[in-house]
Specification:
- This protein is α+β, with helices and mostly antiparallel strands.
- Helix content is 30%, strand content 40%.
- Strands 4-3-2-1-7-6-5 form a 7-stranded antiparallel beta sheet. Strands 8, 9, 10, 11, 12 and 13 form a 6-stranded antiparallel beta sheet that branches.
Length: 305
């Protein structure tokens, strides 16, 4: 008997309420959300790779999805299959103005090269998101806490109101890095990131906020407190890096200082019991020292790998 037939047989024999609980639709919807998130990441990655990057010296002409976690990279000289759940530790090395990525494809490590800058940053974030999702759980929908789908307009409005209550000005929510928080198959909160200026800050700052029920918690990050010498350039990526009793979120920000433009990872601990957020300075320092520039690399830095 197949799994689907077994579920149907049990449901029919146990009555209406039990039958509803056993219906696979909620699980299927959660899986679809994870796959849709990966599909969006692949679309952005494809757009930035084409005609901008090379693979082992050959120009990349396309990236084709073969499943939620498998893609085929097409170059002018051939093809390479990438399983994002086994793509390795994707990290860039900058040489002569180019960002070089070592990525496992078709059973061996290949070299992806692109000119350093915004396009390279977007490629790094796209690959990091895919690798992080797919390595955390097959198909990009890990069990437990995860981010999925866009933040609701109501949640964004609540965060904007909280930012204004804290006397923040020039408030701008980044809807591309704001998501519903899913636990199993239930939406339990909303994560919102953005930027603005605190009244006593010297520079434009970034913030992260969590709306859970009727409670909205917002804390400033770059441009304030321990990070007051960093000017926020906006959030680039966000994801859970630990889903223990006190879950931790990794957020990657673009930062501007006197010396240069940088990518800064910050780890935020979320206490679900009272919806509070707190920057984990020690974990943030470990991720920064490891030069983590995406969520997958932050996870490895915190796990000592």
């Amino acid at each position: 008997m197949t799994g689907g037939a077994l579920c149907l047989t049990l449901a029919l024999s146990m009555g209406g309420e039990a039958a509803h609980a056993l219906r696979p639709s909620a699980i299927a919807m959660a899986a679809a959300d994870g796959e849709a998130m990966n599909a969006r990441a692949l679309l952005v990655l494809r757009r930035n790779l084409r005609e901008s990057a090379t693979w082992d010296g050959a120009p990349i002409v396309d990236l084709v999805a073969k499943g939620p976690c498998v893609s085929t990279l097409i170059t002018t000289k051939g093809r390479a299959a990438i399983d994002w759940s086994d793509a390795g530790n994707i990290a860039a090395e900058t040489i002569d103005g180019n960002d070089l990525f070592a990525v496992k494809a078709s059973g061996s490590i290949g070299g992806l090269s692109v000119k350093s800058g915004d396009t390279a940053d977007r490629i790094a974030m796209g690959m990091g998101l895919l690798a992080g999702n797919c390595q955390a759980g097959r198909g990009g929908h890990p069990a437990g806490l995860r981010l999925s789908g866009p933040a609701s307009t109501d949640a964004i409005k609540a965060v904007e109101d909280e930012a204004a209550r804290q006397k923040m000005t020039q408030i701008r929510v980044d809807s591309t890095q704001s998501f519903a928080v899913i636990d199993g198959n239930q939406t339990v909160a909303t994560l919102v990131t953005g930027e603005g200026s605190m009244p006593d800050a010297k520079r434009n700052g970034c913030f992260v906020a969590m709306k859970q029920g009727d409670e909205t918690m917002l804390i400033p990050t770059l441009g304030y407190g321990e990070y007051e010498f960093e000017t926020c350039g906006g959030p680039l990526a966000v994801g859970f890096v630990s889903t223990a009793v006190m879950p931790k979120l990794g957020i990657v920000f673009r930062s501007y200082s006197r010396e240069a433009e940088e990518t800064v990872p910050i780890i935020v601990e979320w206490d679900r019991s009272n919806n509070t957020l707190l920057i984990d300075d020690a974990a943030s320092r470990r991720a920064l020292d490891a030069r983590a520039i995406n969520i997958a690399q932050i996870r490895r830095a915190l796990n000592g790998r």
